[in-house]
Design goal:
The structure is a homodimer. Chain A is mainly α. Chain A has helices spanning 6-21, 28-35, 39-46, 49-81, 88-100, 102-105, 112-117, 125-149, 155-175, 196-208. In chain A, α1 packs across α2. The interface between A and B is large, with 59 and 60 residues. Chain A binds a DNA duplex through residues 6, 27-29, 37-41, 43-45, 48-49.
Chain lengths: 211, 211
DNA sequence: GTCTATAGATTGATAGAC
DNA sequence: GTCTATCAATCTATAGAC
């Protein structure tokens, strides 16, 4: 019955609660009640609440970033082989597709995207800084790839447009399902994966626009 | 010396703390310490913590939305007079310009934009629902104006592109100054107002893109 | 209107039995 | 590894003096 280790069981439930309610609003007792484990066990396995959320985030984010970087490297390699610039849409897609398809690919971790889409605005300094620290190398690589893909734009322009892209993506990940009031005639997607192409259409047009 | 009423003094400090740390991470004691008032006084004036943040948000957001709607009405009226469709960029600008210019216009409320940019992901249901309730009428009006401005797009397409726009804006309001690592050659704007035109360039291109 | 004092519940973390 | 029991701190909210 209990196939997963207690440690993983705690991580799974903590992931859901932190994603839904945020770090500060999730108490250790809420977690132990939901996970059906003992308060002492959490502290035995993770030491502290901060170390727990660190483990929760790293467990998924490092894997996700590996996938993103792998796809980005493929785009860069293809451009290199044909002696051309990387395609802006493909560069953006390497980051966005694995993110919005995450829930379909890992249904057991369906709440995780909410967690990272809120990580940058997390009130707790340690949580926020840990997230930034993990993301920084890939952010730089993504930024430089876009500069290469869009030589007409200044580095400052690319920088802000990249942030606009990340903001759109982040908003979709967290907000899409929280909004209850839908105007007449608007159809909701069955999953976030279906928003990859609409989002790429939108941000690629914004990225490629002449200054 | 103490020109402002105690009530306003509490609101000003609560606004800063809720914006910086979020609702749950801000305790009433943190607030009374910072504001230099008594714990009893807060409860006398506002009744509860929930009623306090409600007052904090309503005080600014209702005024801001009035300004946004006023500008939107002007855009719609101009289109009506010339028997043409409203301009997508102008419609978007009516919402975005007052938002990103808010800090320059009301320096004493400079932290408020952070608060509303996080309101949709607020863990507390009451806070989130109150925000949605206030925003709903204007959101619908904005949505219908964009449908009118972009007859080529389906209502579903307009809906999601509008969310992409709001995500970009929200990200800029909250994240811009939290990020510490800036790539070489990137210049930071002196204020958020300077991002209005770059953001409008970006999202207008995305909005107007052929399906 | 503003204060002190405190109730009553909940928090993160630990000590020690098993 | 897992449990109970408990500490010390913090939380929101209120009662009542001034």
């Amino acid at each position: 019955m209990n196939r997963k280790s207690t440690k993983e069981h705690i991580l799974d439930n903590a992931e859901k609660l932190f994603a839904r309610n945020g770090y500060h609003s999730t108490s250790m007792r809420m977690l132990t009640r939901k996970a059906g484990v003992n308060l002492g066990a959490v502290n035995y396995h993770f030491g502290s609440k901060k170390d727990l959320i660190r483990s929760v985030i790293e467990r998924r984010l490092i894997v996700l970033n590996k996938k993103r970087e792998e796809l980005l490297d493929q785009v860069l390699a293809r451009a290199n082989q044909s002696n051309s610039r990387p395609c802006p849409r493909e560069v953006l897609k390497s980051f966005i597709a694995p993110t919005l398809e995450f829930r379909d690919r890992f249904p057991q971790a369906a709440e995780f995207p909410k967690l990272i889409s809120r990580a940058l605005t997390e009130p707790d300094d340690m949580v926020r800084n840990m997230f930034i620290e993990i993301m920084t190398p890939l952010f730089h690589k993504l930024f430089e790839s876009l500069c290469l893909a869009l030589p007409v734009l200044s580095r400052t322009q690319v920088y802000w447009r990249l942030h606009f892209c990340l903001g759109s993506m982040s908003h979709v990940m967290n907000v899409a399902e929280r909004i209850r009031i839908i105007p007449e005639g608007v159809e909701m997607p069955a999953s976030q994966s279906q928003l990859v192409e609409p989002l790429l259409n939108f941000i690629t047009a914004g990225m490629e626009r002449n200054p």
